[in-house]
Design goal:
Blueprint: H1 23-31, E1 36-39, E2 57-59, E3 62-65, H2 71-83, H3 86-90, H4 101-115, H5 123-133, H6 142-148, H7 151-159
Parallel strand pairs: 1-3
Antiparallel strand pairs: 2-3
Helix pairs in contact: 2-4, 4-5, 4-7
Amino acid sequence: MNAEAPAHTPVVTRIGDRPTHWWPALRALLQRWGQQLVAVDDGQAIPGSFWGESEAGLIAHHLYARADTPIHSVLHEACHYICMSPARRARLHTDAGGRDPVEENATCYLQCVLADHLPGYSRARMFADMDAWGYSFRTGSAQSWFEQDAEEALARLQTWALVDARQQPTFRLRQAPDPG
């Protein structure tokens, strides 16, 4: 997987896209891992945002977002928090520090799984948003990667006990240390 902030503003699902917004559902979902979703006022810089602009930010167990933050960004950063080692989680500020490509793929895989746990959103919408944003996979799309080329990412999530045999989240945080 290769991800960079896009040069244009793609059409993707954002927190403020619904009349009632996504805040309550996202807060409830992320609280299952002890994360706190913090709303940032429109036009203000997002604390802890690695990419800047409207991208979600991470500082400790706080995930920061604005109404214009894409849902995929919130779930991706949340999944970094879930998938990182306890040592990295303890010092988390802005950069998730995941340099392991399998961990990055596990993060992407888990964000697709979690999309089905966000009422009114879906895995299919996540795939479309990832493709529109510019995530790139060697199979050509997020869905084809997820369905045909993500065995190693799934295996890592299962090894860390983050998803079960049915590929459903366990609502646990990774406890395994970083390799090496």
